[in-house]
């Protein structure tokens, strides 16, 4: 029984930050129709920025609780500084071109950002310890868990609800949904599609950076963290359905539980568990679990 509880808690914890990252990826695809290979690099930049911001707050003698504010500010800074530059300078000239070309552009951006992070932060690992100790330990049965993990789950729920509310209950969100359903019709109705693209890309980058910032206290931030994240994030959105927000949530939960089950019962299968689940889902649902219904072409 204790092992089952441990598997569930570890799987949900892993799924929580993965959902935040995958949510940004699926939002960018849903609006811009771009498979953003560089999404994992924005996650890494967010993690590095969080490490720097938390360290700076520490040198300024702020209370440890301010490290959470530092992580949020790091994600905002990455979105504000990086998103406009990447969207306007690199992606916008290629809108309307072949999808493969856009994938190559984002792959080139991934390679650039990998080198930029090494130039800015070096190759030595960074450790962010202050936020991880803020919430103490939580006793669940006979097991003790880090309270930060439960906070991360709560943040993922808040982020998911906030994105859903923003898309479905605000005017700007309705414009984004209009562009998702039909870019041409939205443009003919006077919607500034370029502005919507910029907004969606900025939010997507913020979510990737936020995921990196929140996981920085749980990992060693070092070169290469972006590669594994982008692979698993793609698995999540493929399982859930490209462009589907509910699919990102269900896909993250499936991947998190599958990985946790493999870690605790068959560690040698951890690397393959995600791909096995993805293959099984695609056998029965080639378009993913929550793929949007496509309009029939005549």
Automatic annotation (TrEMBL):
<feature type="transmembrane region" description="Helical">
    <location>
        <begin position="145"/>
        <end position="167"/>
    </location>
</feature>
<keyword id="KW-0472">Membrane</keyword>
<dbReference type="Pfam" id="PF02653">
    <property type="entry name" value="BPD_transp_2"/>
</dbReference>
<feature type="transmembrane region" description="Helical">
    <location>
        <begin position="65"/>
        <end position="87"/>
    </location>
</feature>
<dbReference type="InterPro" id="IPR052157">
    <property type="entry name" value="BCAA_transport_permease"/>
</dbReference>
<comment type="similarity">
    <text>Belongs to the binding-protein-dependent transport system permease family. LivHM subfamily.</text>
</comment>
<protein>
    <submittedName>
        <fullName>Amino acid/amide ABC transporter membrane protein 1, HAAT family</fullName>
    </submittedName>
</protein>
<dbReference type="InterPro" id="IPR001851">
    <property type="entry name" value="ABC_transp_permease"/>
</dbReference>
<keyword id="KW-0812">Transmembrane</keyword>
<feature type="transmembrane region" description="Helical">
    <location>
        <begin position="261"/>
        <end position="284"/>
    </location>
</feature>
<feature type="transmembrane region" description="Helical">
    <location>
        <begin position="99"/>
        <end position="121"/>
    </location>
</feature>
<feature type="transmembrane region" description="Helical">
    <location>
        <begin position="42"/>
        <end position="59"/>
    </location>
</feature>
<keyword id="KW-1003">Cell membrane</keyword>
<feature type="transmembrane region" description="Helical">
    <location>
        <begin position="196"/>
        <end position="219"/>
    </location>
</feature>
<keyword id="KW-1133">Transmembrane helix</keyword>
<keyword id="KW-0813">Transport</keyword>
<feature type="transmembrane region" description="Helical">
    <location>
        <begin position="12"/>
        <end position="35"/>
    </location>
</feature>
<keyword id="KW-0029">Amino-acid transport</keyword>
<feature type="transmembrane region" description="Helical">
    <location>
        <begin position="225"/>
        <end position="254"/>
    </location>
</feature>
């Amino acid at each position: 029984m204790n092992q089952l509880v441990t598997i569930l808690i570890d799987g949900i914890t892993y799924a929580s930050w993965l959902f935040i990252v995958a949510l940004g990826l699926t939002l960018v695809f849903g609006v811009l129709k771009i498979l953003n290979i560089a999404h994992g690099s924005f996650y890494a930049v967010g993690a590095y920025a969080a490490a720097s911001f938390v360290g700076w707050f520490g040198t300024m003698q702020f209370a440890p609780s301010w490290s959470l504010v530092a992580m949020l500010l790091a994600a905002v800074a990455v979105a504000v500084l990086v998103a406009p530059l990447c969207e306007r300078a690199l992606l916008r000239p290629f809108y309307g071109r072949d999808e493969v070309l856009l994938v190559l552009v984002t792959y080139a951006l991934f390679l650039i950002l990998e080198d930029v992070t090494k130039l800015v932060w070096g190759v030595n690992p960074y450790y962010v310890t202050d936020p991880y100790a803020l919430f103490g330990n939580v006793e669940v049965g006979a097991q003790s868990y880090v309270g930060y993990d439960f906070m991360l789950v709560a943040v993922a729920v808040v982020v998911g609800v906030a994105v859903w509310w923003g898309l479905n209950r605000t005017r700007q969100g309705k414009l984004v949904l209009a562009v998702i359903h039909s870019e041409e019709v939205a443009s003919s109705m006077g919607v500034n599609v370029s502005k919507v693209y910029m907004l969606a890309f900025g939010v997507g980058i913020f979510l990737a950076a936020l995921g990196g910032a929140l996981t920085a206290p749980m990992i060693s931030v070092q070169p290469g963290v972006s590669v594994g994240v982008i692979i698993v994030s793609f698995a999540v959105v493929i399982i859930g359905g490209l462009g589907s927000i509910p699919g990102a949530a269900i896909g993250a939960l499936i991947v998190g539980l599958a990985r946790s089950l493999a870690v605790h019962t068959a560690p040698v299968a951890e690397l393959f568990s995600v791909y096995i689940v993805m293959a099984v889902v695609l056998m029965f649902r080639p378009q993913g679990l929550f793929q949007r219904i496509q309009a029939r072409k005549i």
